[in-house]
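---------- Forwarded message ----------

FYI, see the Fasciclin domain-containing protein record below. Original note from H. follows.
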Amino acid sequence: MPVTLGVMAPQASAQSATQDPYGPACASVPKEGKGSLAGMAKDPVATAASNNPELSTLVTAVKKAGLVDTLNNAENITVFAPSNDAFAKIPKADLDKLLADKAELTKVLTYHVVGEKITQQQLEDGSFKTLEGGTLTTAGSGESFTVNDSAKIVCGSVPTANATVNIIDTVLTPK
Protein backbone atom coordinates (compact mmCIF):
# COMPACT_ATOMS: atom_id res chain seq x y z
CA MET A 1 0.00 0.00 0.00
CA PRO A 2 1.84 3.14 -1.14
CA VAL A 3 1.82 6.14 1.12
CA THR A 4 1.66 9.55 -0.50
CA LEU A 5 2.03 12.92 1.13
CA GLY A 6 0.59 16.20 -0.05
CA VAL A 7 3.11 18.97 -0.55
CA MET A 8 2.30 22.15 1.29
CA ALA A 9 3.96 25.55 1.17
CA PRO A 10 6.39 26.09 4.05
CA GLN A 11 4.28 28.63 5.92
CA ALA A 12 4.40 27.22 9.45
CA SER A 13 8.18 27.18 9.75
CA ALA A 14 8.55 30.76 11.02
CA GLN A 15 5.96 30.12 13.73
CA SER A 16 7.37 26.77 14.85
CA ALA A 17 10.96 28.00 14.75
CA THR A 18 10.28 30.08 17.86
CA GLN A 19 9.46 27.01 19.95
CA ASP A 20 12.36 25.44 21.77
CA PRO A 21 12.48 21.69 22.38
CA TYR A 22 11.15 20.74 25.82
CA GLY A 23 10.71 17.72 28.04
CA PRO A 24 12.77 15.47 30.33
CA ALA A 25 14.14 13.21 27.57
CA CYS A 26 15.66 16.16 25.69
CA ALA A 27 18.54 15.94 28.20
CA SER A 28 19.50 12.53 26.76
CA VAL A 29 19.84 13.89 23.22
CA PRO A 30 23.53 14.29 22.28
CA LYS A 31 24.84 17.81 22.99
CA GLU A 32 26.69 18.13 19.67
CA GLY A 33 27.03 16.47 16.30
CA LYS A 34 24.43 15.23 13.81
CA GLY A 35 22.27 13.58 16.51
CA SER A 36 22.11 16.77 18.61
CA LEU A 37 19.10 19.09 18.50
CA ALA A 38 21.05 21.55 16.33
CA GLY A 39 22.30 18.73 14.08
CA MET A 40 18.81 17.23 13.66
CA ALA A 41 17.47 20.63 12.54
CA LYS A 42 19.72 20.48 9.45
CA ASP A 43 18.56 17.10 8.12
CA PRO A 44 15.21 15.77 6.86
CA VAL A 45 13.31 13.80 9.50
CA ALA A 46 14.29 10.18 8.74
CA THR A 47 17.95 11.14 8.35
CA ALA A 48 17.81 13.25 11.53
CA ALA A 49 16.26 10.35 13.45
CA SER A 50 18.97 7.98 12.20
CA ASN A 51 21.58 10.20 13.88
CA ASN A 52 19.78 10.16 17.25
CA PRO A 53 20.68 7.10 19.36
CA GLU A 54 17.33 7.30 21.25
CA LEU A 55 15.44 6.57 18.00
CA SER A 56 17.39 3.60 16.58
CA THR A 57 14.49 1.11 16.85
CA LEU A 58 12.17 3.57 15.07
CA VAL A 59 14.75 4.03 12.32
CA THR A 60 15.00 0.24 11.88
CA ALA A 61 11.21 0.08 11.55
CA VAL A 62 11.06 2.98 9.07
CA LYS A 63 13.72 1.28 6.91
CA LYS A 64 11.88 -2.09 7.01
CA ALA A 65 8.65 -0.35 5.96
CA GLY A 66 10.42 1.45 3.10
CA LEU A 67 9.37 4.89 4.40
CA VAL A 68 12.75 6.69 4.53
CA ASP A 69 12.32 8.58 1.24
CA THR A 70 8.62 9.23 1.88
CA LEU A 71 9.39 10.88 5.22
CA ASN A 72 12.51 12.70 4.05
CA ASN A 73 10.69 14.18 1.03
CA ALA A 74 7.53 15.26 2.88
CA GLU A 75 7.04 18.93 3.70
CA ASN A 76 5.85 20.40 7.00
CA ILE A 77 4.90 17.21 8.83
CA THR A 78 4.79 16.32 12.51
CA VAL A 79 6.15 12.98 13.65
CA PHE A 80 5.25 11.47 17.01
CA ALA A 81 8.43 9.39 17.27
CA PRO A 82 8.45 6.46 19.71
CA SER A 83 11.75 6.24 21.61
CA ASN A 84 13.70 3.01 22.03
CA ASP A 85 12.12 2.76 25.51
CA ALA A 86 8.66 2.93 23.89
CA PHE A 87 9.47 -0.01 21.61
CA ALA A 88 10.98 -1.87 24.59
CA LYS A 89 7.49 -1.91 26.20
CA ILE A 90 6.30 -4.22 23.40
CA PRO A 91 7.00 -7.92 24.06
CA LYS A 92 9.89 -9.04 21.82
CA ALA A 93 7.83 -11.67 19.97
CA ASP A 94 5.13 -9.08 19.17
CA LEU A 95 7.70 -6.50 18.03
CA ASP A 96 9.48 -9.07 15.84
CA LYS A 97 6.13 -10.04 14.28
CA LEU A 98 5.31 -6.36 13.58
CA LEU A 99 8.74 -5.69 12.06
CA ALA A 100 8.27 -8.71 9.75
CA ASP A 101 4.84 -7.55 8.47
CA LYS A 102 5.53 -4.62 6.12
CA ALA A 103 1.85 -3.75 5.58
CA GLU A 104 1.01 -3.67 9.30
CA LEU A 105 4.29 -1.90 10.12
CA THR A 106 3.54 0.79 7.52
CA LYS A 107 0.07 1.24 9.02
CA VAL A 108 1.47 1.65 12.55
CA LEU A 109 4.28 3.99 11.50
CA THR A 110 2.09 6.25 9.33
CA TYR A 111 -0.32 6.51 12.28
CA HIS A 112 2.51 8.42 14.04
CA VAL A 113 2.72 11.08 11.27
CA VAL A 114 0.47 14.11 10.77
CA GLY A 115 0.58 16.00 7.46
CA GLU A 116 1.01 19.42 9.06
CA LYS A 117 3.40 21.11 11.47
CA ILE A 118 1.72 21.12 14.87
CA THR A 119 2.68 23.84 17.34
CA GLN A 120 3.01 23.34 21.07
CA GLN A 121 -0.14 25.46 21.55
CA GLN A 122 -2.14 23.18 19.21
CA LEU A 123 -1.21 20.18 21.39
CA GLU A 124 -3.19 21.57 24.37
CA ASP A 125 -6.48 20.15 23.08
CA GLY A 126 -5.87 18.79 19.59
CA SER A 127 -7.27 16.29 17.16
CA PHE A 128 -5.18 15.52 14.08
CA LYS A 129 -5.66 13.28 11.04
CA THR A 130 -2.72 10.94 10.51
CA LEU A 131 -1.22 9.76 7.23
CA GLU A 132 -2.60 6.31 8.10
CA GLY A 133 -6.10 7.85 8.01
CA GLY A 134 -6.90 7.65 11.70
CA THR A 135 -7.00 10.43 14.28
CA LEU A 136 -4.61 11.27 17.10
CA THR A 137 -5.75 13.35 20.06
CA THR A 138 -3.49 15.45 22.25
CA ALA A 139 -4.03 17.14 25.59
CA GLY A 140 -1.99 18.99 28.18
CA SER A 141 -0.31 22.32 28.75
CA GLY A 142 3.09 23.90 29.27
CA GLU A 143 5.58 21.09 28.73
CA SER A 144 3.31 18.20 29.74
CA PHE A 145 1.34 16.59 26.91
CA THR A 146 -0.24 13.21 26.22
CA VAL A 147 -1.17 11.61 22.91
CA ASN A 148 -4.29 9.39 22.78
CA ASP A 149 -4.46 9.52 26.61
CA SER A 150 -1.61 7.00 26.76
CA ALA A 151 1.70 8.27 25.38
CA LYS A 152 3.61 11.12 26.97
CA ILE A 153 5.68 13.55 24.90
CA VAL A 154 9.10 13.20 26.53
CA CYS A 155 10.97 15.58 24.19
CA GLY A 156 8.76 17.83 22.10
CA SER A 157 9.10 20.45 19.37
CA VAL A 158 12.36 19.02 17.99
CA PRO A 159 12.92 20.67 14.60
CA THR A 160 14.23 18.88 11.52
CA ALA A 161 14.64 20.32 8.03
CA ASN A 162 11.10 19.22 7.04
CA ALA A 163 9.28 18.21 10.22
CA THR A 164 8.59 18.80 13.88
CA VAL A 165 9.35 15.74 16.01
CA ASN A 166 7.71 14.93 19.33
CA ILE A 167 9.47 11.97 20.96
CA ILE A 168 6.93 9.82 22.82
CA ASP A 169 7.23 7.06 25.44
CA THR A 170 4.69 4.62 23.98
CA VAL A 171 4.12 3.15 20.50
CA LEU A 172 0.66 4.16 19.29
CA THR A 173 -1.60 1.67 17.51
CA PRO A 174 -4.30 2.67 15.03
CA LYS A 175 -7.83 1.57 15.81
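H. also flagged this: The CA atoms of residues 23 and 154 lie 5 Å apart.
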